[in-house]
Sequence to fold (181 residues):
Amino acid sequence: MDINENGDKQKKNILREGGKNKMQVDCSKYYHFDGECEDVQKEYLKIVENYIEYYHKRANNCKYTFYIISSIKVILIALVPITQLYSDMEIMKLVSVIASTLVLALESLLGLYKLRDKWFLYRETCNILMSELRTFQVLGNCCSICRDTFEKFVLEIEGRINDEARKWIQTVRRKEEDQSK
Fold:
């Protein structure tokens, strides 16, 4: 499988541009390559590392955004009963209405963007890809990587990425269906 001929060039470029962070793994110390496929295999393993980094970043972004919005929502909900204690003051009535409206808006945003669902989906995909990479690393340390093992690895990784894309599309469609109700 030649990445340059069959790969999606735009996705490949995006994945190569990823910066270094703690999720990045240097495959060169784990694998022993033979023959003409060495460059393609090394390039594909680098792409897999970039996918792992991409899904890790996306999962963390969704997670932290979900936590921030949820925390703000909880604080605003707690603020409403406090403002009711001082209901004789006009400003407190206004604060109560604004806080309630913001809670409603934040809840709608959480439902709209499905941050929790996306966080879990990206985290699951990242974990699966890391597991596949570790399995491949064990095989690479035990013996020289043969063409069949690498092809099985590529098919498994591509299947997992396609599965994530399918689940993401289902999440988006559910979001559109929820909005149309």
